[in-house]
Amino acid sequence: MASHRDKRKTQRYSAAKEAFVFLRPTFVNLGRVVDLSDGGAGLEYIADKGIAPEWAEVDIVLSDSGTHISRVPCRIVHDSPLDDQAMPLGLETRRCGLQWGELTPRQQVHLKACTSYHGKFNA
């Protein structure tokens, strides 16, 4: 069976520690960006145990570069729980892969700038 990395069409770059995703529409969940590309992103987030995500837009914030990309359309391509030994009862950390939807020209420019900026962290 091929891994997720084998199926990627675009090069991913490791994200800085200060890269986050706010999960729309409620902004209740916050995810940490693990890697980022022109085609999508990998992230980790905390959720109620056993509840699959239903969001279709995210906001990306890269605090080290001051970048905020709003309302990025996405599709969840995989989502699975991680082994959590220290999570409070009823919560779990999940690993999720996103594929970008149809991006505006502005979103494309910002994402390209982010991957160029973080290119030195090539995964």
Automatic annotation (TrEMBL):
Domain PilZ: 7-115
Source organism, top-level taxon: Bacteria
Protein name as annotated: Type IV pilus assembly PilZ
Gene3D superfamilies linked: predicted glycosyltransferase like domains
Pfam families for this protein: PilZ
SUPFAM superfamilies, sorted: PilZ domain-like (SSF141371)
InterPro entries on file: PilZ_domain (IPR009875)
Molecular function per GO: cyclic-di-GMP binding
Organism per entry: Desulfarculus baarsii (strain ATCC 33931 / DSM 2075 / LMG 7858 / VKM B-1802 / 2st14)
